[in-house]
Batch of 2 targets.
Target 1
Amino acid sequence: MAMYNKKTIEDVAVEGKRVLVRCDFNVPQKDGKITSDKRIVEALPTIRYLKDHGAKVILCSHMGKPKGEVNPKYSLCAVAARLTELLGMPVPLCADICGPDAKAKVAAMKNGDVILLENTRFDKREEKNDPEFAKELASLADLYVNDAFGAAHRAHASTAGVAAYLPSVCGYLIQKEISVMGKALADPTRPFVAILGGAKVSDKLNVIENLLSKVDTLIIGGGMAYTFLAAKGYGVGTSLLDKEKIDYCKDMMAKAEKNGVKLLLPVDTTVADAFPDPIDAPIEVSYVDSENIPADKMGLDIGPKTAKLFSDAIMQAKTVVWNGPMGVFENPTLAKGTIAVAQALAASSAITIVGGGDSAAACEQLGFADKLTHISTGGGASLEFLEGRELPGIACLADR
Ligand code: ADP
Ligand code: MG
């Protein structure tokens, strides 16, 4: 995979320019109230830089899945209000995306002003990456800045198409993703250890394959580990098992051996009678070695010996990439493996990178976030990055 080396907002003149900034303001909301403004806060450095350097800052984003229709439920109005608070200046929301209201508001902007366009997915041409729509969006501005890493794996009009009509650079968020994650994958400081977990092997097939050509050690935990254990010939009880992927796991074990990659699987596992319902309900567990999982038990977390094995491997690394929890971390009794891995990452002096929505959430919830080098801001996008795929929202930006 080629390493991206893209121009950033600091590489271009922005004063007096109308700058269209694609952000990821797809924040969780309940009853019209934002429940986490993390994505808005993360976008502030790019917005502040542009505003402080005299640009006319035109923000845009999608929100939810309005399916190409105007639907007040998916309006960015709460985002505009939050931006107004955070920036301490009015951030008016346009009534449309690039229609008469947006055009009028842009025309009235002064240097340093900030406005927000309405949800880009209110127009069905957005997700089709329609060139006419991209051109209309581009006509509002002189420069395009993409800072929506979370949407960079999608080729939509506002995430990629618009770059065909404007000079295009990345903001600080995308820049950090490509410099930290891009370097880790293209030119890692070794030993390079990757940890994969989560529910399903099939979700991460390409990631496993790609990482096996890059890492020194690949650690597999979480629900996906049981298909590997089955591939080793072990019984896995009622644990998650992807029968169709057993042969694939055998291939991956062979590939690891061929590439000289150390593949670490759980040596013991935390089992219970059934999946907790509700997910955080109290649960009685026991620990068994991986080759002795009883037929009527379900593996829901790595066991204590495995937590130690994985932590030791992490402590020896110089670069660590982690995607996917080690167990059903939503339940405190089944979060121990995930906590142990998070603790090892936090204690390590290596470059530590966490990608994946649930693993990132686990690190935040457990309070380890500020001890890590980088928590990716995009679940799907960071997974495609780890797969070695080209991200359209980054590929479209100008090279340095
Ligand atoms: P990420 O979002 O970090 O990429 P995934 O979405 O792949 O992670 O997986 C997260 C989910 O995997 C969590 O909801 C967790 O409860 C589940 N999980 C982890 N281990 C197990 C297991 N042993 N059995 C069932 N589910 C599991
Ligand atoms: Mg997930």
Target 2
Amino acid sequence: MAYRWSNDLTRADITPKSAFLNRRQILVGTVGLGAIGLVGSAAQAQTLEPNTLEEITSYNNFYEFGTGKTDPAQNAGALVTSPWSIKVDGMVDNPGDYGLADLLDGLTVEDRIYRFRCVEAWSMVVPWNGIELADILNKVGVQSGAKYVAFETVVQPENMVGVQRRVLDFPYVEGLRLDEAMHPLTLMATGIYDEPLANQSGAPIRLVVPWKYGFKSIKSIVRITLTDEEPPTSWNKVSAREYGFYSNVNPQVDHPRWSQATERKIGGGLFASRQDTLMFNGYAEVAGLYEGMDLSEFF
Ligand code: MTE
């Protein structure tokens, strides 16, 4: 089911979790992909048993709130998420500082169960609610000549304990090629399990690119810039040989310090066996975006 984003949605408009899960059992593996006419994905052949909300919101990476996996859940309560505005600038027809609700007004909120694979070789399955990034970009009007989209996370030094420690060069920044950004799988998530995003998950709005390693999925976004140059990205600035701009999930290209062939599913229990990592995290339909590119070179 998809519904329209509106300024006046109330809690009553939100699907009860039980209904949400029942619907998912029927649609498992096809939601999102089937709905937009993308078939033949390896991910569809797998059972996408979503992680619990508890698992999804208690094991996180959000370095602005510390580097430990439970630090974000402990510290992100201090993040101020309302009011929230997003600066849209660069090569767009309608640049400006948009209130979040204004930017999303009238756009369709989609339900998508996506596999989520971190570069650290753990994974989850997350039932997101969000808007296709393409819808937002079409609304602001991408100018011809734009080739990339750059994103920036909020910096609230007094509310973000990790920013003071300067582990990364904040603000956290990320980027996509324009065709990746326009792909129907690319989502700007505003919720999980029909609940607004928890702060540690990147409230009030974060990127989700399911065929790429998780660090591309930048959280708590306050700026979107259209540009004709490949934008800098946070982890690439830390170590270019370890974290490329593309960072497509690829079991054949190991991280210099560990294998990417398998992954540990969070919530599987101590003795669960590792599962094979799939090319493009199972979203084989994106392969056409990289035709002619050597994916061991453009990693
Ligand atoms: N966004 C910001 N602003 N800061 C971060 O540290 N971590 C990234 C990504 N987005 C990160 C971020 C990494 S490494 C991963 S794996 C995912 O967020 C984790 O998302 P999750 O905590 O919702 O699972």
